[in-house]
Design a protein that fits this description.
This protein is an all-alpha fold. The protein has two domains: about 40 residues; about 50 residues. It is built from four helices and no strands. The termini are far apart.
Amino acid sequence: MSRTKAIQNSTKEPKNRPARTAEARENQLIALAYDLAEERLRNGTASSAEIVQWMKRGSQKERQELELTKKKMELMQAKVEALQSAKHVEELYGEAIVAFRRYNGVFDEGEDVDDGTDEF
């Protein structure tokens, strides 16, 4: 009997370590759901809703929508980077204007004037 139990236990899938984060746990559950869906499709016990779901996910339209979503994400990221760059350029222009004013002898109120003489 012990040999039979050993064979039965060896066919079970190894237990995964517990996830350390909520995101990792979610990924584990998603992987299990995919495995279960695949098993049900293979052995013919999948419901019609499951079959339709996988057919939709494999369709050309779904793939195009996924590609469109990816492109929109890339566009949004490019816009964010452009805004950050514009802000940085604006800061540089402001610093340049202040530097030109100082060079011309125009100082802002409250700004210390360093005339090059050291007083003790």
